[in-house]
Amino acid sequence: MSVARENVEAAPSATIEDYYHEGREFPPSEEVRERALIADRSLYEAADADWEGFWATQAAALDWFEPWKTVCEWELPFAKWFNGGKLNVSYNCLDRHVLAGNGGRVAYYWEGEPGDQRVITYAELLDEVQRFANALKGLGVTKGDRVAIYMPMIPEIVVAMLACARIGAPHSVVFGGFSPDALRDRINDASAKVLVTADGGWRRGAVVPLFENAAPILSDTRSIEHVVVVQRTGDGDVPLMQPGRDHFWHDLVLEADAECPPEPMDSEDLLYLLYTSGTTAKPKGIMHTTGGYLTQVAFSHRYVFDLHPDTDVYWCAADCGWVTGHSYIVYGPLANGCSSVMYEGTPDFPSKDRWWEIAERYRVTTLYTAPTAIRTFIKWGSEYPRAHDLSALRLLGSVGEPINPEAWVWYWEHIGGGRCPVVDTWWQTETGAILVAPLPGVTSLKPGSATFPLPGIGAEVVDDAGNRVERGGGYFTLTRPWPAMLRGIYGDPERYRETYWSRFPGRYFAGDGAKVDEDGYLWFVGRVDDVMNVSGHRISTTEVESALVDHPSVAEAAVVGAKDETTGQGIVAFVTLRGGMQVDASDKHGRELRDHVAQRIGPIARPKVVIFTDELPKTRSGKIMRRLLRDVAEGRDLGDTTTLADVGVVDEIRRRAEASPTED
Ligand code: PRX
How far, in Å, CA of 303 to CA of 323, rounded? Predict the structure, then answer.
């Protein structure tokens, strides 16, 4: 189903002033400009003058085993980039740095939640990747086989991803916080042959037993032949491991050969699948390929973060289970040969200054995180960062949702000490790489605006009819292909065309509303479809609704994302129960339904509040009017109710909403 379904509403009606009441502009300082790789408009000009030539120059920064024949072949909506070229991603991320004499450079300063630490150089990482690549081969994985990865943030997750890339086996990383059910669906959709996981991961001092949780679903996954288990939280037997099928990581690598030559891959060979939520209940397997993807993640990482690989210590505080981790913890930073910090746990364990302690210890220069984290830090208070020496910081990044100007300015002042540019980066799982962001040495920043499309990116805001909006609000669209763009939805080419390319013919549209101000700056204002953004994570309303309806007591459910001060949006569920069931006032049933959703999808999808109602507001043709439910959930006056079949329903829902307990 495309985003152009019945309840796509006009872009939100707030004005730019609502967002941009901050009013200040932040041009690059002299110090920032002097240090910047780019301090003039040369990159924009080069891309405008010769778009293909520009991307070819970026691709040439990688090592290719064989040169490409064409830069971009575009048969709307299918693109091929650097077709005919051959390369290997793990070679570009590891071997070439080692061959250039940089094997001793740190790839990751890793810190576990309990405080254990590992420093891993490029040479060491290459060694581990080769061994694990051979271990995978030993389990029968060959080029083209899919490998599922369900792991905590430990170095082995990076090793597993790169080992897959080395032998040409596309990986499908499933966020460790997703439920076993979600893992099963993703394994089955991709027909993954091997699952790489761990005995457990640390979360706020407790062990999450990943393997044990996942083991029961393995009987429902016909394609899995072997499971590899990293020993992270224990040192003995792991319950439910089956001899022959399941193996310890350390046993496999001990026996594995130390050398594994990189598989020469076609530029358009599949590098990975990553599942993301859309407007339907079924997550989409987003396909990313090799040459274009690596070109653009390396390019954007270098220029948006103004990277100086020999001196920077870069920290992207995301999880490898999301696209941010793929592109900006693993592939971009390693392709650029930079040193990264990687952290396993939460920011408040054992205390609320954990991040700042880490930033101080490793002299972090560049921090990339999400507005939801920044808002949480604001809530905790500035004394936590103030207690640490953050003077090494010189650049801050934001991703995942619109950053409100207050959070931007707080980040700038309290983390960046008033000297670090804050780069707000807009992109998506589907785009693979950052598409809209400032260049820190060039762009004058406005808090809350992601500013301009990067060089080489064609973007326009359009109105309902698809006409370009020069000033004002509308739908954010892309007018040209880009190297890291998704190549499709796994197993469903038609859904790809319909989801992204049908709403505005000839343009890519994936659900965001945006406004253009009088200086041409872009302001993203959130999704205009049925996708919620909770703590920077995309969650489909339909997926949560399906999980609710799947509970035996639920007859019908409608879910909306309501504004939340910390998480951006919070999930509010409106539920009608089967045949006259009554709910008691203790919210026991509400809790049961919230738990049910968390168990079906994962804790991130747990509704904040469940409102029981006898009926949902519907149009005369029977469509649920989510707009009204959003108004109720956000405590607003109701808009136009003339199309409602029964106006009394909303008053009743509002009364119930006011009485419903909210979970923090
Ligand atoms: O709505 C946009 C929002 O996050 C969505 C993409 O989510 P996902 O595929 O999970 O990837 C998140 C990390 C890249 C977008 O459609 N979004 C992402 N970055 C921003 C943003 N909204 C506003 N400003 C941003 N900087």
Answer: 19
Distance CA 460, CA 516 (A): 9
Residue 511 alpha carbon, nearest atom of ligand 1: 16
Query: Residue range 166-177: average pLDDT?
Result: 97
Give the closest residue (by CA) to ligand 1 atom 26: 426
Dihedral angle at the C-alpha atoms of 339, 344, 347, 351, nearest 10 degrees? -110
Distance 369 CA to ligand 1 centre (A): 12
Q: Which of 300, 290, 150 is nearest to 229 (CA)?
A: 150
Distance, in Å, from the CA atom of 255 to the CA atom of 183, rounded to the nearest integer, reads: 29
Percentage of residues in the chain having pLDDT higher than 70: 95
Residue 333, both tokens: 């930073």
| Dist. CA 213–CA 122, nearest whole Å | 33
Q: Return d(Cα 397, Cα 425) in angstroms, integer.
A: 7
A 10 A CB-CB count for 620 gives 9
Average of pLDDT values for 7-17? Answer: 42
Q: What angle do the packed helices 588-600 and 180-190 form, to 10 degrees?
A: 30
Output the pLDDT for position 414: 96
**pLDDT of amino acid 281:** 75
CA angle 445, 301, 170 (to 5 degrees): 140
Which residue's CA is the nearest one to ligand 1's atom 8?
A: 428
| Residue 512 contacts residue 504 (beta carbons within 8 Å) | no
- Residue 401 near ligand 1, beta carbon < 6 Å: yes
CA of 427 to the centre of ligand 1 (A): 5
Average pLDDT over residues 556-567: 91
Mean pLDDT of the chain: 92
Ligand 1: centre distance to CA 124 (Å): 34
pLDDT at 531: 87
Beta strand pairing call for 472-478 and 339-343:
unpaired
Query: Is the CB of 319 within 6 Å of ligand 1?
Result: no
In this predicted structure, the answer to whether residue 585 has a pLDDT above a threshold of 70 is: no
- Asked whether residue 659 carries a pLDDT value surpassing 90, the answer given is no
- The single residue listed with the structure tokens 């399906």 is 546
pLDDT of residue 1: 27
Q: Does residue 92 surpass a pLDDT of 80?
A: yes
Label residue 532 exposed, middle or buried (CB < 10 Å: 0-12, 13-18, 19+): buried
Question: Atom 2 in ligand 1: which residue has the minimum CA distance?
Answer: 401
SS3 at position 504:
coil
Handedness of CA 594, 596, 598, 601 (dihedral sign): negative
Q: Whole-prediction pTM value?
A: 0.92
Name the pairing type of β-strands 531-534 and 537-540.
antiparallel
Measured from the CB, is residue 124 less than 6 Å from ligand 1? no
Least confident span in 217-226, 281-290, 292-301, 585-594:
585-594
State what percent of residues in the chain have pLDDT above 90: 79
Pocket lining: 568 vs ligand 1, CB cutoff 6 Å: no
CB 594, CB 567: distance < 8 Å: no
